Amino acid sequence: MDKIRTRPWDSADHLKTEDDMADYFEACLQEGGDDPAFIAHALGVIARARGMSQVARDAGLSREGLYKALSHDGNPSFGTILKVIKALGLQLHGSKAHA
Which GO molecular function terms does the record list (predicted)? Predict the structure, then answer.
């Protein structure tokens, strides 16, 4: 029997357009909006799809600082999250929570 070869899934490989990135971010906010690490990871995925170096420059961060802030061990400030969201061309918006 032949072995099945798999490769790790990377959502960044599938975020090709601005709309893809915005839809992914919106889905992540709905799915894990109360989990800051989940949201930071989602922003990291989008940043990798767009290009970490450019996102870091646009956010006023070093590339290494951006990687660290959005890593599983990172604990970015809310200000950093807002800078990254803006650098990605996204918006954070609120709506009434569903009970």
Answer: DNA binding
Residue 38 CB contacts under 8 Å (≥ 6 apart), including other chains: 28, 31, 32
CA 92 to chain centre: 12
Q: What is the pTM of this model?
A: 0.84
Q: What Å distances lie between residue 5 and 9, 11, 86, 92, CA to CA?
A: 13, 19, 39, 39
What stretches of the chain show up as alpha helix (H) in DSSP?
A: 18-32, 36-50, 52-59, 63-69, 78-87
Would you kindly state where each structural domain of the chain is located, as residue ranges?
16-87
Tokens for 43? 């922003």
Which mean pLDDT values do the consecutive 10-residue runs of the chain (99 residues) have? 85 88 92 86 93 94 92 88 95 78
91 exposure class (CB count in 10 Å sphere: 0-12, 13-18, 19+): exposed
Give yes or no for a contact between 65 and 55, defined as CB atoms under 8 angstroms apart: no
